């Protein structure tokens, strides 16, 4: 199968980072074929999946698939997949957010995204890892992306490159970029509690609030509440 670099796959959770990335890719090169994958792994913040579906409606000609990953819920314990575990509130940092790690989640999702890309002849897989996640999530670090790129070029005859454009961006810088290109942030979801209105207390909500403060604008999601 011929590989086309005008056809790309993006892992799209419905959250702020992947929402910015999708909108960025969509607005910069609208001629490209964009195939978005959203994974349902039993996350307690399942509201993000519905947000992803609404967000996609704002993007003409973007293909969207929601993939069931219930098995990840079964084998990878985390407060994001176990209602019996408390979601940490307060600072978005390594010590406080450790229980939100879903073991090996990104490797599983990227592997499936690579399979999908090979199947449709897409040359790249994008995901929204960023610098603020480096201390918390090992599968968002530069060395992980580098290693996955080596594997993705060895696993099949059709090489696929993994691209994480925001790998060295802070969440605030992502928000700043997103505001400048008109990302419809009111259609994204961030709260790890899965609540609406957002709880405003979990680490993910705290980080989102700090990002919009950095960007110098109010969170449009909160304006709608």
Describe the structure.
The model has no long low-confidence stretch (mean pLDDT 91). Strands 3-2-1-4-5 form a 5-stranded parallel beta sheet, sandwiched between helices. With 225 residues, it is α/β, with parallel strands linked by helices. Helices cover 39% and strands 14% of the residues. The longest helix is centred in the middle third of the chain and has 16 residues, at 105-120. Helix 1 (16-28) crosses helix 6. The chain is built from 8 helices and 5 strands. It is globular and about 45 Å long. It has a single domain (4-224), classed as HUPs (Rossmann fold, 3-Layer(aba) Sandwich).
**Corresponding CATH architecture:** 3-Layer(aba) Sandwich
Q: What is the count of structural domains?
A: 1
Report helical residue fraction: 25-40%
* Spatial shape: globular
Show the helix and strand layout.
Layout: E1 4-11, H1 16-28, E2 33-40, H2 47-56, E3 62-68, H3 70-75, H4 105-120, E4 122-126, H5 142-154, E5 161-163, H6 171-181, H7 203-215, H8 220-224
Parallel strand pairs: 1-2, 1-4, 2-3, 4-5
Characterize this entry briefly.
The protein has 225 residues and is an alpha/beta fold. It has helices spanning 16-28, 47-56, 70-75, 105-120, 142-154, 171-181, 203-215, 220-224, and strands at 4-11, 33-40, 62-68, 122-126, 161-163. α1 (16-28) packs across α6.
